[in-house]
Design a protein that fits this description.
Blueprint (H helix, E strand, L loop, with lengths): L10 E6 L5 H15 L9 H15 L1 E8 L6 E9 L2 E7 L8 H12 L4 E6 L3 H9 L3 E6 L10 E6 L4
Helix pairs in contact: 1-2
């Protein structure tokens, strides 16, 4: 059950990502960013983003996919996370799947994979993401003017440790 009382429309299953997930994960990434951060500059084409997902994210980080298991067929991807050591690189959901507990499930997997602690960046204006991470025990430890990211968007550095 989710925080708003709505269950997902099927059982959620987490699995490790495969190379053939690249197109779907790219679409999730692009759609999620467009829906939650419409102000964010698009600095790469869809094709370049697919190349990045295929050749950088999938082979270079640990990626987990959240799927809705339906009527006996393959699951439908509705979110993913990417972890590189103790860095939570990406956590994105399909826009219509937000506030159903899927992000919390993915975050639990990230914590399982990095039990000593996690760090991440979130854009300062992404108040929904910031509230999500703060609700889950992350603490803001630094603010940046946007000079460290391609979008030139001010961001916040967060950390979580199991000891609080």
């Amino acid at each position: 059950m989710s925080s708003d009382g709505r269950p997902p429309s099927g059982a959620i299953h987490l699995r490790e990502a495969r190379v053939e997930d690249a197109p779907c994960l790219t679409r999730l990434f692009l759609d999620s960013r467009a829906a939650s951060m419409p102000y964010l500059a698009r600095v790469h084409s869809d094709e370049a983003t697919l190349g990045w997902m295929t050749h950088v994210v999938l082979p270079g980080t640990e990626v987990w996919v959240a799927e809705i298991q339906g009527g006996g067929g393959a699951g439908e991807p509705v979110g993913f996370l990417s972890v590189d050591g103790d860095e939570l690189e990406h956590l994105y959901l399909r826009p219509d799947m937000r506030r159903r507990g899927i992000g919390t499930l993915l975050l639990a997997k990230a914590r399982e994979r990095s039990p000593e602690g996690l760090a991440l960046y979130a854009f300062q204006r992404n108040t929904d993401a910031r509230a999500f991470y703060e609700r889950h025990g992350f603490t803001a430890v630094g603010f940046d003017d946007g000079g460290r990211n391609e979008e030139s968007e001010p961001d916040v550095r967060y950390r979580w440790s199991p000891s609080g």
